[in-house]
Amino acid sequence: MTTVKLNEVSKLYASTSRAGGLTPALRKVSFELAPGEVISLIGESGSGKTTIGKILLRLVQPTSGSVTFDGKNIASYSTKGLREYYRQVQGVFQDPFSSYNPIYRADRVFDLVRSVYFKGVNDRDWSAKLDQALDAVALNPADVLGKYPHQLSGGQQQRLLIARALLLDVKVLIADEIISMLDASTRVDVLNLLVSLKRKGLAILFITHDLSLGNYVSDRTVILRHGAIVEIGDTAKIFGNPQHDYTKMLLSAVPELHKKWQHTPLGPVAASANGQGANGRGANGQGANGHGSQGNVASGAVVATVEAGADADAVTALAHASMLDELTHAEQVVKRDLRAVFGGNRAVASGRSQVAVALEPPALHEFEPGHLVAEPE
Amino acid sequence: MSVSVENLSVAYRSHRGDVTAVDNVSFALADGEIMGLAGESGSGKSTLGNALIYMDPRMKATGGKVAIDGAPLPISDSKAMRPLRMSRVSLVPQYSMSALPPTRKIRKLITDLLRSHHVQDRAEVLTELRRRLGLIGLKDDVLDKYSFELSGGMRQRVTIILSTLLNPSLLVADEVTSALDVSTQRAVGEMLLEFRDRGYVKSVIAITHDLSILAQIADSIAIMYAGRLAERAATDVIVNDPLHPYTQALIASLPAVGVRHDEVTLTGIPGRPPSLANPPSGCRFRTRCPFAFDKCTDTPPFAEIKPGHHVACWKVSQEHAVTATAGQEQPAPVLPVEPVLPVEEQV
Fold first, then answer.
1. Which of A224, A282, B52, B333 could form a disulfide with A43 if both were Cys (CB 3.0 to 4.6 A apart)?
2. Nearest 5°: CA angle at A96, between A94 and A102?
3. Looking at the predicted structure, is the pLDDT value of residue A70 above 80?
4. Best of B41, B181, B196 to disrupt the A interface by mutation (most A CBs within 10 Å)?
5. Which of A250, A253, A266 sits opposite B194 (nearest CB)?
6. C-beta of residue B161 within 8 angstroms of C-beta of residue B188
7. Which residues, 6 or more positions from A296, have their beta carbon under 8 angstroms from its beta carbon?
8. Alpha-carbon distance A201 to nearest alpha carbon in chain B (angstroms)
């Protein structure tokens, strides 16, 4: 059993803003990916989902925690070991158009694989292997070989990259937003391809912000928020019975063809727009506790009047957008505190500082078998 | 009706001659109507939207007329268009999250914008600006920030506020929700609805490849394929009862929330759109269409099959002609296009 496992992986990034400091991108994330399993990793921008992909591909080192592959810490690999690792673990990324060098033919990506991993293979065996890989992704070799990237559609490019991964002895595929740039008509083909690969025993980490796509392909789902897991479990259970408020909010915002959002008209605008600023939000004191964003939602940045909860959805979405705005502020506070810790300020080193609270992910408890939910943060 | 487009064709100049990206497109928008314009990449939907606001030097209108509030819109004459932009027609461009200049604070950007559009009473417009910021839950202090200090959703909302500040009759919103997270997407979508309801914009063309967003915000949807309109009808008709085979395939390829691969296997559309440099004769979808027959080598008219429901498909118009005669109804006439929704139904 080839299993990839994350053990309490955290990652802090140095902030590029003038205020400096560190941004927690991941907070003690643990889960494992088994063969023949598709896990969808769902979260908004900044939730740390791409960082997880990068850490699994060893493009980024975790600040703490470890990733094991077959029980071996991937940080311990030598150059040769790493090459073997990449033979089994491969990634495909969001933008197929920038994954190719436009001045070379698209199938150069295969030649590069050959030059590293299949030096001894003769031309005939190689082309047989190539045909097999292209066949697996439902591409006709005559359509794609010898073409330049601009001559291929986005869907073809993306499938070519998956074929490239399949040439290797790949066991784990990290698919980071691989269909978000594709048209609806080709999107489904790539999704169905993932399903058929999974049935052949491939483990797939499907990173996406689109819940309906995640639900379509995955067996298990991980919902990430601010770098911590808020809900994890069987996809059917999470989508059928979401428990965390954040998951519920995400689900309520998904546009569906056959169900309309309940749009609540915003209340009348106050004569003085400035008066609204004082409406509970923006109070800096709230942000200062490092995780005050929840409170801001409740206090209602939006002046909408809620009619007996009928249109609670609409309010949540708008309020959430405002909450994200507030977050920048809360984040900055966290960053400042973090700098105090990592910059060697001894004062906060003792006891459970606010930073520790901010870094410590909310505790997970079991809601039902195969469905864990985080405490509200 | 606030906008009418008749037989508009727009071409790009290229080394190998003109490439017609928008081919003989006609539609009209009622006051207060939000029309969704959907299609695959390269279908010409952004070209159509941009042509109504700004023809860049590579583009030229090769035919057709556009009118706004009853007066002709001189889309080919950039000089004559200039005073109309922002005040009558306005655009939220694709990738608008990168549309705000990084070297100017938002307030400076807005005052520059107002000055260059010769707005006399700038103080009043700025008061209105603050009111609208407050309405969608943004604080005044965004005005004193640089664009890179704002989150993506904030930037998108600021851009929409800027584009609609002078209450244009037509707003072309090009992929305004595409790069956003679901929750921000919803907030931006509702913001468009709200601005329409409040009359900040009279009518909106929302361009996107995401039909499910349009199902939420649009009153009517036009489906574009390879430079031509394939189908246009009220939103629930497109979503629940599409007639054009392309629309049907598009709708069928969307995974609904809750659908899983082991229950339903969705299918894509085989093949890819034709090259517009050398488009096939007749119906442009026929090479991918499961129902294509010999008549499809002629170009199908964009005919009104039912009131407010236009389809460019021979199979559909034939079938409808049969049922219409059987039911003693009027045969489907090829009419100039009328807005899908009467004004009364907008509110």
1. A224
2. 145
3. yes
4. B181
5. A266
6. no
7. A280, A281, A286, A322, A323, A326
8. 16
